[in-house]
Amino acid sequence: MKTVTYFATCNGETVTLSKVGYMRASDIAKTRDITQTEPPANQSKHVRLCVASGGGRPAVFDHAIGQCSKCNRWHFAERMIERPSNASNHVCNGRCMAATGKVCECSCRGKNHGAGSNFSISI
Description:
There is one protein chain. The protein is mainly beta. It has one domain (2-122). The protein is built from 2 helices and 7 strands, in the order E-E-H-E-E-E-E-H-E. The longest helix is centred in the first third of the chain and has 4 residues, at 25-28. The chain is globular.
C-alpha cells in the first residue's frame, strides 16, 4: 500500500497540504478562501487531473488544491508524492531533490522530493 502526500510552498517554505481536492479554474475564481484566484503562472510545477480529452475536444484540467499545514489557507498543490509502505528510509540527498518521478522512499518522506526540479504531474 502507498501513501500519497501533496506539497505546496507557503511563504517560501515547503508545506504539506491536507483535505486535498480538485477544482476547475473557473470554479476557483469564484472561491475567496484560496490564496490565489488563478492557478500559478508556472503550471509546469503544478498537480492537475485530466478530466476529458479526445474526440477533438481539448483536455480539461482540474487543479489540485489543499489546506496548508502552516497557515490553514488553501493553496495549489505543486507536488504529489507517493510513498510505499515498505520505504527504505535512506538518507535524503541531491538525487531526491532533483527527482522527476513521483515516488519517494527516503527519510524526507517526500518533502524534498523533486523540489529542485521543474516537473508537472498530470493524473
